[in-house]
């Protein structure tokens, strides 16, 4: 848990401005007076615990950062963070494993907030074949694996498009979370070679076009998260599942299976 010495009012104002909301907009949404909100932001009024949680919810502040708001206001954190091996997360862990296994023979990965690989099914080997072992050692970061010159990048036929999509997703995550570690990761990835390329007009998604043993595979992906989580670990997990974007890719994966 990161702590901060900044006043809670200053932090709330920063989140409001990041969300591009006026004081009146937020006050109406949170059903409080604009005057009260102004007093909170300037430090003239100390918000209650419930008020901090209410404003954090209406500002869509991530759970990790809501705890920081509470600490800044002098209250104990409201949301706990457990290891994925915690007994209380057994049901969630088993559900994730069922999703991964059931997705075979297509690749699927589970990542945390920082895009570190938490779990994956056996078919992920199709994606990581030829990747430098140093990139696969824990904590393996899937964005580094994808875009590093020693990772998947040399095998990605449409690297510019795929790179632009991944960096765009990370940029939006930085905007939502204001997390400096994610901002550092974005700066690192931008320094990798490959450039960014706008997708060709007329498509319906940006595919991952990947060379594998002499064949060109084409994938699209979906991302799943837990609904209504109140625990930080679950809130920050995402399952990305890759599907064949053409019949040839599906047949190639089934033969490998």
UniProtKB/TrEMBL annotation:
GO molecular function per UniProt: DNA binding
Domain HTH cro/C1-type positions: 12-66
Top-level taxon in the UniProt lineage: Bacteria
SMART domains: HTH_XRE (SM00530)
Pfam families: HTH_31, MLTR_LBD
Coiled coil: none
Protein name: Transcriptional regulator
Lineage: Bacteria, Bacillati, Actinomycetota, Actinomycetes, Pseudonocardiales
């Amino acid at each position: 848990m990161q702590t901060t010495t900044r006043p809670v009012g200053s932090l709330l104002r920063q989140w409001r401005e990041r969300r591009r909301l006026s004081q009146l907009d937020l006050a109406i949404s949170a059903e409080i007076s604009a005057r009260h909100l102004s007093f909170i932001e300037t430090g003239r009024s100390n918000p209650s615990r419930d008020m901090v949680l209410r404003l954090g919810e209406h500002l869509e502040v991530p759970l990790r950062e809501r705890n920081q708001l509470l600490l800044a206001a002098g209250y104990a954190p409201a949301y706990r963070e457990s290891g994925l091996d915690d007994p209380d997360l057994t049901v969630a862990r088993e559900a994730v494993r069922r999703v991964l296994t059931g997705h075979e023979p297509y690749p699927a990965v589970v990542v945390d907030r920082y895009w570190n690989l938490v779990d994956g099914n056996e078919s992920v080997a199709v994606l990581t074949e030829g990747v430098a072992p140093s990139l696969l050692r824990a904590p393996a970061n899937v964005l580094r694996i994808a875009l590093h010159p020693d990772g998947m990048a040399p095998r990605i036929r449409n690297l510019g498009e795929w790179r632009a999509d991944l960096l765009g997703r990370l940029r939006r995550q930085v905007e939502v979370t204001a997390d400096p570690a994610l901002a550092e990761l974005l700066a690192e990835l931008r320094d990798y070679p490959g450039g960014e390329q706008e997708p060709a007009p007329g498509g319906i998604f940006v595919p991952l076009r990947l060379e594998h043993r002499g064949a060109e595979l084409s994938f699209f992906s979906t991302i799943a998260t837990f609904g209504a989580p109140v625990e930080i670990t679950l809130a920050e997990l995402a399952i990305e599942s890759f599907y064949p974007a053409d019949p040839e890719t599906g047949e190639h994966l089934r033969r490998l299976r």
